[in-house]
Each structure stands twice: as C-alpha cells, then as structure tokens.
Amino acid sequence: MPLKRILPPLVALLLLLPGCAPKIKIFASQATEPLKEYVVDGKGEGKIALIHLRGFLTTQPNQGMLRSQPSPVQELVNALKLAEADDEVGGVVVAIDSPGGTATASDVLYHELLDFKTRSGKKVVAAMFDVAASGGYYAALPADWILAHPTTITGSVGVVFMRPKLSGLMDKVGVDVEVSKSGKDKDMGSPFRPTTPEEEALFQGIIDDLAARFHELVMANRKLTEENMATVKTARVFTANQAKAIGLIDQIGYVQDAFAKARELAGLEEDAKVVTYRRDLYPDDNPYNTLDSAEPFRPTLLGVDARYVMPPSAGFCYVWVRGVTR
C-alpha cells in the first residue's frame, strides 16, 4: 500500500492516543524563573493581587517547541501562595478567559481558591473576559463576587466526553487493531470500534455523576431558583446580560470595576495598588498583559489553539467545545 495512504491514519492515531504515544520534546528548557511582583495599577496603600487564568484548564504542563510552561493550575496556586504570604494583599482578582478543561483541573482550581479564602480570610473577585464557560465558570464559583465583561460568554454548566472514532477510516485503508483484555469493559471508549449500548449507559452514568457535582456547587454558591437552575442544567451558554438575569454572575463591567469591588470588599482605599506576578519585566505593563513569561509555541488548527478542540488526553471535561460537535 502506498505510504501516502497509510501516513494520515497513523498520524491521527498518534494525535488521538496521547496516553500511549511517545512524548516528543525538541528542547527540555523549563520556565524556572521565580514569579516576581509588578504593579499594574494604583499608587495607594494596600494591594489587590491580579491573577490570570486562561486557556484550556489542565494539570499538565504546556508543552512548547522551545520549552515547557507550568500548567494553569500550577501557576494559579503559585500566585495564590504569594498573595497569601503578603500581609499587604487584601484581596485577589482572578481574571478568567477559558472555555474550561478537564474535570479534575477545574475541580482542583475550585478547591484551591476556596482553601485560599478559608486560610487567608482574603476576598476573591472573579473577572470574566471573552469566555468563562464550563470549567472556566466552575473555577469562578468560590469568588465573593463574579463580574463579567459586557461581551463575555459564560455558562455551559455540564460535562462532555469526546471520543473520536476511527473504525470507518481504518476500514477504508485496510488497517486493523487487535486487543487482548482482562475484562469486557477494559477497552470501553476505544476509537477502533463502535461503542456498545451497555458502554453508552456506563459513560452516561459517569457524565451524570460529574454533572451532578457541578450542579450542586452552582446551587451552593449561587442560590438559583429551581426554574433558573433547570435552564442552567441544559448546559447552554449565556451572554453577560443573560447570566446576570439568571443569577450566574453579580455584575457586568470592566476589569477596573473588578479592582474597585475587590478594594471595597477588602476595605482598602480607592487607589490601592494592583499587583501581578510575572517572571519577566515588560515595558509599559498594564492589567491586560496576560503573559507570565515568553510564550511557548502552541499547536493551532486553522488559527485556533488546537487544545480547545483536541484536549491533551482522553477524559471527561468541563469544557465548552465550540463548533466541533454535531
């Protein structure tokens, strides 16, 4: 068989099975510089810490062409530790721009923010930017105040389990996979064969269980009416105006409004400093700079970060998958 016919399905297999495929690094350089504090707004006494949470939420480090970057979970925890240790910091603004991510990463972020509040007694304001959906919204739930930009998309309170199927493609190119297993369900979810009705039921049970946890946390933190919660459970997304009307957020505004609310909740003066934590110094720094350090290469699919539509490993995700499902 010609190589050009065999190569595409083999490449697809490597992309779809990251847990089994070898990890290839061109350079092993790591982002090892410590985080340092930089002032991005205000000149008064006291501080509000600005922490960015963006991209696909995972506990895995971001693999670049030139180096690896810490995962979003690791970076948030690092920044929270600095904010907690600084007695001048009265509160935190978490700027969220994320469609969500893995169920575990989203839940860890929720846990870490809640623990930070409990340990430190410091206030947390969540400020949503372009998208704060699914796991991005999950991570905002511990906040004392949730603010969305006028054009934010949020919601998508639910779970998705994407499992691409290659069986049709493999039939066309004459490729097969033999599987030996210890139990009948050991390879459930395999991309190499159709899913059985029994497996569909098992998957749905897992999805329902994970969704129930998400729903319980929304109810515990937002106190929605039964009618509004029923709408939220459809897992649809909402505009900022819709989210405020249904009770998912507290305010519509801009990042400066989030700073003002955090200063108010922390009992700080109106011009208290806003600090952020970065590895590199940037000229003319400001709150909209989301870089902690020089960015690694990230794979793109038609100009879109490929991690948004191709999660780094198989699993159940609190993520809003835009325009790629039927």
Provide a compact summary of the structure.
The chain has helices at residues 3-16, 72-85, 103-120, 135-140, 167-173, 197-222, 226-232, 240-246, 255-266; strands spanning 29-30, 36-41, 44-54, 62-63, 67-69, 89-98, 100-102, 123-133, 145-148, 153-155, 237-239, 251-252, 272-278, 300-301, 304-305, 317-319. It is α/β, with parallel strands linked by helices and 326 residues long.
Question: How would you describe what is shown here?
Answer:
This protein has 326 residues and is an alpha/beta fold. It is built from 9 helices and 16 strands. A hairpin with a 2-residue loop joins strand 14 (300-301) and strand 15 (304-305). Helix 2 packs parallel to helix 3. Mean pLDDT is 83; it is low at 13-30 and 308-312. It has helices at residues 3-16, 72-85, 103-120, 135-140, 167-173, 197-222, 226-232, 240-246, 255-266; strands at 29-30, 36-41, 44-54, 62-63, 67-69, 89-98, 100-102, 123-133, 145-148, 153-155, 237-239, 251-252, 272-278, 300-301, 304-305, 317-319.
